[in-house]
């Protein structure tokens, strides 16, 4: 199961993570990938100037706590399901950090080294909740499928995007790959000389609220839900899209 960008924010309820936990115990995927930006980290937004209306009231620890609360809600569902069972459901949990969580924290530390003793990636508590943490911009390969929050479009390092992002991802990586970052659901596949499928996909997002910085028109473009990969083997998979309304109706 791939969880698209979740963008936890202090003012947004985290009920969707209870739904996620119930879904996990129901369908029991063996691997769960958080594709990054579980945290929105508004407090570290460098586009808002200190003292501006959009900046005031943002606190680092409020941002951190919103994402930890989400992890707790998922874990509670797993623990409740496993209680008293001999055969426990324990999926592999993998987190590829994104530009909002991993990227913003590291950039803040680079700009303000004096904060190194006060903040860091350890605040996310990934390990404490059983998540393997993959650094921002790095890739993890599982059963032949590459996962990363985003992939570079060229030597300048800008994330792949554009009108057909999945096609661009496939043509640049030449490898089956899953990405997040743009909040869209997009898919492309080709066959190599042996007939083997090479697939590329963007995993949408897992939040129901609107992101203020994106604006209403862009928010309406987002694909909200969860991406389920089936029969994953040697870089090939079948997929199913679980829309947010469907997830809420069954597990809410």
UniProtKB/TrEMBL annotation:
This is Calcineurin-like phosphoesterase domain-containing protein. It comes from marine sediment metagenome. The lineage of its organism: unclassified sequences, metagenomes, ecological metagenomes.
